[in-house]
């Protein structure tokens, strides 16, 4: 069993909460930027990338605020990790501050962060932020 560390990345997005809610909290929204396809059954999300499917259990969902999952593989191995998104509105600028939480083994954190950077680039393109 590999130990994993939680890391956070923060992004300023010039968009509305309504637009962000759609891309973070809906099946079709997630498939537009995070993965190729996603299927949801009960609290299990099946994310697909290039024909590879990875499943995650929904841990918490607060529409308009945050969503958090745990990879089933980590759950089965007893690794206490999660990944997810949360956001808030900066009161001074009215910009949306998106925080992404991820986890990776120490030696894989740089690569994991680079992957999230690519996902956020896709997200920005999608929402015009």
Automatic annotation (TrEMBL):
START-like domain residues: 1-129
Domain of life from the UniProt record: Bacteria
Name of protein: SRPBCC domain-containing protein
Species name: Taishania pollutisoli
